[in-house]
UniProtKB/TrEMBL annotation:
InterPro entries: ATP-grasp (IPR011761), ATP_grasp_subdomain_1 (IPR013815), D_ala_D_ala (IPR005905), Dala_Dala_lig_C (IPR011095), Dala_Dala_lig_N (IPR011127), PreATP-grasp_dom_sf (IPR016185). SUPFAM superfamilies: Glutathione synthetase ATP-binding domain-like, PreATP-grasp domain. HAMAP family: Dala_Dala_lig. Its cofactor is Mg(2+); Mn(2+). It holds the Pfam family Dala_Dala_lig_C. This is D-alanine--D-alanine ligase. Mg(2+) 2 binds at residue 279. Its EC number is 6.3.2.4. It comes from Phytoactinopolyspora halotolerans. PANTHER family: D-ALANINE--D-ALANINE LIGASE, D-ALANINE--D-ALANINE LIGASE B. It is an enzyme of class 6 (ligase). It catalyses: 2 D-alanine + ATP = D-alanyl-D-alanine + ADP + phosphate + H(+). Mg(2+) 1 binds at residue 264.
Length: 319
């Protein structure tokens, strides 16, 4: 048995990504048991704080996705309870989860992100949607990607090839939040790079290349087996592979992230990486990207999760 003591995996919550979170939690808990860790899994519900105070675990591995899991809320609670946990500090989670803020920070650090704008639902409604969208298409061009400013798993996201489809894409986006990010679609290879740090500094794992059967890596393509083909490591020239790895580590450092992150990007025909999104709580399901990178690196998922928990315990003790 591991000498970590009893640890807790948090999964579930009330966000739109609850099902993904539960699947991630089960996968990590099972992987930890396989390497001898005493672990239990529970939901984030009204009894959570009382349970954590009455029977504090040695460490917590939060696998809550979306609001509550990635916006810094659960991290703030764990800090208030003085519990070691895997993942980024609350403030770093907040600024990363807010895509316009993280986009600005990444651009300031010299990283490439697609040209785009952010529109609130009230602006869209009150200032004349038709004229606003005409101006948007005229400025950025087509095709466009519309996505909620806060959220994950591609929920509420749409690819717009025709200007006539833009209004419905905006309405769908606003079903998942009150602000939309509209960016030019960058043509190229879609890749994802996970970064892990078990105490010796952030390291990029092998990039995953994503080829969705439908042409769009949406929620269905992400979590339905057989609908997406993955290449690990990504089919990139070695120099480009080095560039995407460096970009992911730079994004991790720029946003003040810790332990684990995943950066999604497009590599265009010239080999330039364009950063699309950075995730502070990457999925751990059977079809998720980080576990594929871990496997390609020759590491067991349970081994990595155990080492991340151990690093969190050590960090907490030293603090």
């Amino acid at each position: 048995m591991s000498d970590l003591g009893h640890v807790l995996v948090l999964a579930g919550g009330l966000s739109h990504e609850r099902d993904v979170s539960l699947r991630s939690g089960r996968r990590v808990a099972e992987s930890l048991r396989e390497v001898g860790v005493d672990v239990s899994q529970r939901d984030a519900d009204a009894d959570l704080i009382v349970t954590l105070r009455n029977d504090p675990p040695a460490a917590v591995f939060p696998l809550l996705h979306g609001v509550q899991g990635e916006d810094g809320a659960i991290q703030q609670i764990l800090t208030l309870l003085d519990l070691p946990y895997v993942g980024s500090p609350a403030g770093s989670c907040r600024q990363t989860f807010d895509k316009p803020i993280s986009k600005g920070l990444l651009e300031k650090a010299g990283l490439n992100t697609p040209p785009g704008v952010v529109l609130s639902q009230s602006t869209f409604r009150e200032l004349g949607a038709a004229a606003l969208l005409d101006a948007l298409v005229g400025r950025i061009g087509l095709p466009l990607v519309v996505k909620p400013s806060r959220g994950g798993s591609a929920l509420g996201s749409s690819l717009v090839n025709d200007a006539a489809d833009l209004p419905s894409a905006m309405v769908e986006c606003f079903a998942y939040g009150d602000s939309a990010m509209i960016e030019r679609k960058i043509e190229g290879s879609e890749v994802s790079v996970s970064v892990v740090d078990t105490g010796d500094g952030p390291v990029a794992l092998p990039a995953v290349e994503i080829v969705a059967e439908s042409g769009t890596y949406d929620y269905h393509a992400r979590y339905t087996a057989g609908t997406t083909e993955y290449f690990v490591p990504a089919r990139l020239p070695s120099a480009v592979a080095d560039d995407v790895a460096q970009a992911a580590v730079r994004a991790h450092r720029t946003l003040g992230l810790r332990d684990v992150s995943r950066t999604d990007m497009i590599v265009d025909s010239s080999g330039t990486p364009w950063l699309l999104d950075v995730n502070v709580a990457p999925g751990m399901t059977e079809t998720s990207l980080l576990p594929q990178s871990v496997r390609a690196a020759g590491i067991g998922l349970g081994e990595l999760a155990r080492d991340l928990l151990a690093a969190a315990v050590k960090r907490h003790a030293e603090a």
